[in-house]
Amino acid sequence: MNMNVVRSIQPVVNSISSRLFSTSTCLQEIRKMARMRVVDNSSLGKAARVSGQPARVIHVYTKNGVATLGDKVLVAVKGQKKKAFIVGVKQKQKAKIPRFDTNNIVLIEDNGAPIGNKITVPLPSLLRKKEGDITKVMPLANRFV
Amino acid sequence: MPKRLSLKPEEVEKYRKSKLIDHPDVPVAEKTQRETVPADYRFVFPEFLPDPEYDRRDRVRERLERDDMYRRRMVIEIPEFYVGSIMAVTIADEQTPSKESRFVGICIDRGGIGLRAFFILRNVVDGLGVEIMYEMYDPTVLSIETLLLEKRLDNHLYYLRDAPPEYSTFSFDTEAIPIPKGTAIPVNPLKVKLNPRPWLERWERQDLKGIQELNLPQKFYDRAEIHAEKPWQKHDLMKQYRSNINADDTEQVMKEVHQRKKAIDRENTRRRKEAIFKNKK
Predict the structure, then answer these.
(1) Taking CB atoms and an 8 Å limit, are A100 and B128 in contact across chains?
(2) Nearest to B81 by CA among B115, B106, B63, B49
(3) Which domains does chain A have, with CATH numbers?
(4) Average pLDDT over residues B221-229
(5) Contact flag A96-B125 (C-beta cutoff 8 Å)
(6) Closest Cβ–Cβ partner in A88, A95, A128 for B135
(7) What GO cellular component entries does it have (chain A) (predicted)?
(8) Which chain B residue's Cα is nearest to A103?
(9) Domain containing B262: what range?
């Protein structure tokens, strides 16, 4: 395009259309394709951490497709499909519920038993009142906040 | 009835040789009411000030909320603290075996008005950054302690999320360091060295005093200058008026706080003495 034309329409473009990309901070929601940090000592999780290819959420087992603390997700780790529980989130939380610097997961088998046998980071205390398979993950933690 | 000649007390006061308030017959209670309120109260008790947003104001609700806040302060001691202070909070937690949980961290932000006042504590636990927001007047909060009373150079410390963990690591066994009464609150002049980009926010666009030189390419500072506050905006009187509570309202609220604080302080010292007595037993 002619440079003069560009110069003449530039102020119009600036005044009418704002930027075409969003500059607001993201919501930090855990949806499909969200990258997660595996915090148990399973060899699969360690391999994902070392290789720099974090586990990716490929399905969320909730009605609205957004996962939060204590929800179950399906993740892709090192070419494998594994189920996992979310044990720490980055998103803003209500009063007294901890917010972490990373989105943390603990890998589990299809039958609900955890793959690793130790969790290296603190877990939020409110997970202890959850029922179901996540109770099998709780004994692996060494600290709650 | 004949019309009485009424003289206002202020008018009479003009012709008195000495002030009526200094007269020995005036009760002591009335004299103490005229005490001046310390000027720093609006920084020590910011949550008592009403919302500067005029549409959200409701004087009856504000007063009822303040009454509830005084009542809560009679039950637990809510100490003076600022952004940058190291604090410990114990809450009732039915999930833990001891039925309570304690968290220690640096206060990275405080805010909220009235009963919704909150503060956020940050710490690094087992190498992972943890932040917990607490509401100051939450009935499940069992105790709030200020372990180290100090200020930092900024109004918030959210940039600690993009700083190395040593800047926000605090031991849970930290012991309280009391500062002598009447001394000014120390300001920690620490300048934080941030990690290299990418960051969670564009820190170069915020007027932050507590971070070291960022060493970014010039284009970042050029953009920051475009988005920065215009030089005349800080002298915009109308803007200041809209975003602050006016001096009259502040004085009225702080006078009330000052009066109610005496009973609260008395209750706190009684409770502290009781605790010492119990420990001795």
Answers:
(1) yes
(2) B106
(3) 27-140 (2.40.150.20)
(4) 93
(5) no
(6) A95
(7) mitochondrial inner membrane; ribonucleoprotein complex; ribosome
(8) B128
(9) 38-75+229-275
Confirm whether B238 is domain-assigned.
yes
For residue B257, being part of any structural domain is answered with yes
CB neighbour list of residue B182: distance below 8 Å, 6 or more residues apart: none
Q: Is this structure's pTM higher than 0.90? A: no
CATH number, domain of B178, equals 2.30.30
How far does the CA of residue A82 sit from the closest CA of chain B (Å)? Answer: 24
**Interchain CB distance below 8 Å, A95 and B134:** yes
Tell me if residue A74 falls in helix, strand or coil.
Answer: strand
B154 and B185, same domain (yes or no): yes
Question: How many structural domains compose chain B?
Answer: 2
Do the domain assignments include residue B20? no
Say whether both B62 and B94 belong to one domain.
no
Adjacent-strand bridge partners of B278: none
What is the chain A residue with the closest CA to B158? A101
In this structure, the answer to whether residues B127 and B207 fall within a common structural domain is: yes
Q: Could you identify the residue written with the tokens 């690591």?
A: B169
Per the DSSP assignment, residues forming a β-bridge with B43 are none
Q: Select the residue from A101, A128, A129, A130 to test the B interface by mutation, using most B Cβ atoms within 10 A.
A: A101
- Whether residues B130 and A145 touch (CB distance < 8 A) is answered with yes
- Block residue for tokens 């905006």: B233
Q: Please report the ipTM that was assigned to this predicted complex.
A: 0.83
- Cα-only R_g, chain A: 21
pLDDT 10s digits, A33-84: 999 999 999 999 999 989 989 999 999 999 999 999 999 999 999 999 999 9
Q: Any CB–CB contact under 8 A between B142 and chain A?
A: no
Per residue in B52-111, pLDDT (tens digit) is 988 889 999 999 999 999 999 999 999 999 999 999 999 999 989 999 999 999 999 999
Phi, psi of B169 (to 5 degrees): -105, 125
Question: Does residue B31 sit within a domain?
Answer: no
Cα A86 to Cα A106: distance, rounded to the nearest angstrom: 7
Pair (B151, B117) in one structural domain: yes
